[in-house]
Specification:
Blueprint: H1 10-21, H2 25-65, H3 68-235, H4 239-263
Helix pairs in contact: 2-3, 3-4
């Protein structure tokens, strides 16, 4: 029958990979001690096999010959075989101890490596969390700053609108005031022109009426003169009264002068 090749187990590969991944001086030392004891055990096992064969052969020979020398040789062969077997047992015990130490060193190295890996992972996770927190904080800060800037911009826009409205109101008020002032000036000018026209018209009318007034004044003066003459003729009879009447004539003359001034 054709031999079927046995499939290699993956567990052994995993163990070797784990051994390769773990790097510890104590583990290396323990593994070296195990390898040394295994070599010694192999050599002693060979010696023990040889000693056992010799003891069996010596025992057979002593049973056949039944001589004292043969029996002594058989006893010596058995004693040496027992000694070699004891050495093999001792070496195997040492190998077991060394292997236990190696396993303990490997477990310690693995624990240390796992701890270091966990520490690295924890550090990476912490860094990741810190980076995420920093990114979120920066994002939030940028959002807050953008909201603050938008609010400030709105405030400034409202302020600018108010200022523009106020300026427009001021301009309208100034324009209104200027228009009112211009209107008042125009009105004043129109009134001045009107009054000037009235004055000129009045002057013209007064200029036309003056000859009539002068004639009336002359008539009045002539009338007064005639009355004065009559009174003077009447007072000639009494000289005292004549003096008084002369004084009265002077007063009348003064009154006439005053009336003429008023007429002008």
């Amino acid at each position: 029958m054709a031999k079927v090749k046995a499939k290699k187990r993956t567990a052994a590969k995993k163990k070797s990979a784990a051994k390769q991944s773990v790097n510890s001086p104590a583990l290396k030392k323990a593994q070296a001690a195990v390898a040394k004891l295994e070599r010694e055990s192999k050599a002693i096992s060979k010696k023990a096999q040889v000693a056992r064969k010799k003891a069996v052969a010596a025992k057979k020979k002593a049973a056949k010959t039944k001589t004292a020398t043969a029996k002594k040789a058989a006893n010596q062969a058995q004693t040496s075989a027992r000694k070699v077997a004891a050495r093999v047992a001792s070496t195997n015990a040492k190998i077991r101890t060394a292997r236990a130490k190696a396993r303990a060193a490997e477990a310690a190295a693995k624990a240390k490596a796992r701890k270091a890996a966990d520490a690295r992972k924890a550090e990476a996770d912490l860094k990741k969390a810190v980076d995420a927190f920093t990114a979120n904080w920066k994002k939030k800060r940028a959002k807050d700053e953008a909201a603050k800037a938008a609010k400030q911009a709105r405030r400034e826009a409202i302020k600018a609108r108010k200022a523009a409205k106020k300026a427009a109101q001021k301009e309208r008020a100034a324009a209104k005031k200027a228009a009112a002032k211009a209107k008042a000036a125009a009105k004043k000018k129109a009134t001045r022109k009107k009054t000037t026209r009235k004055k000129t018209a009045k002057k013209k009318s007064t200029a036309k009426k003056r000859p009539v007034k002068k004639k009336a004044a002359k008539k009045k003066a002539a009338k007064k003169k005639s009355t004065v003459k009559r009174r003077a003729a009447a007072k000639k009879a009494s000289p005292k009264k004549v003096v008084k009447r002369k004084a009265a004539k002077k007063k009348v003359a003064k009154k006439k002068v005053a009336k003429k001034k008023v007429a002008k």
